[in-house]
């Protein structure tokens, strides 16, 4: 028996409540697995980038001269320093300074997007001695002490008072 006022339609597709829940759980598990897989792939990609950067860094710092890199060459060098003190004669004295270059590298951080990572070293005096210099001044002789390098090497870049 059908009511003639209503057209015949197929009954709606009613899914039992337990199947809905099971389907939802199944779909959710697939989504979680996909999400976890994406995270693993992203991590693997970041690790490959980091490995590549580290390998490049090792090549640059290995002193082999490959890929156009320069070997660090921080060394002692003789230097004539002019001592110019107001009211005194100008005096030239020979001292040692550090001369050369050291390794530096900068690159985009592989994990922290947009951040710059860097490592730089400067040719610096590692050991210093004071050299006493006698200068003639209008008000009498004076002794001035100036630094002279005993040992040089590549070290972190900074400004030091000697």
UniProtKB/TrEMBL annotation:
Organism: Panagrellus redivivus (Microworm)
Pfam families referenced in this protein's UniProt entry, alphabetically: Cys_knot
Residue span(s) of domain CTCK: 76-158
A cellular-component GO term for this protein: extracellular region
Record-linked SMART domains: CT
Keywords: Disulfide bond, Secreted
Compartment annotation: Secreted
Domain of life the protein comes from: Eukaryota
Designated name of the protein: CTCK domain-containing protein
Entry-linked Gene3D superfamilies: Cystine-knot cytokines (2.10.90.10)
């Amino acid at each position: 028996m059908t009511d003639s006022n209503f057209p015949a339609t197929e009954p709606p597709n009613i899914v039992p409540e337990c199947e809905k829940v099971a389907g939802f759980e199944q779909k959710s598990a697939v989504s979680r697995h996909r999400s976890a897989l994406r995270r693993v792939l992203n991590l693997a990609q970041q690790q490959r980038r980091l490995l590549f950067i580290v390998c490049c860094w090792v090549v640059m710092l290995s002193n082999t001269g490959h890929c156009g890199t320069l070997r660090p060459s921080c060394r002692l060098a003789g230097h004539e320093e002019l001592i110019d003190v107001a009211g005194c004669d100008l005096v030239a004295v020979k001292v040692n300074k550090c001369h050369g270059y050291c390794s530096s590298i900068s690159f985009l951080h592989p994990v922290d997007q947009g951040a710059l990572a860097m490592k730089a070293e400067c040719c610096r005096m590692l050991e210093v001695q004071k050299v006493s210099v006698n200068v003639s001044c209008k008000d009498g002789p004076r002794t001035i002490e100036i630094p002279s390098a005993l040992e040089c090497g590549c070290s972190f870049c900074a400004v030091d008072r000697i």
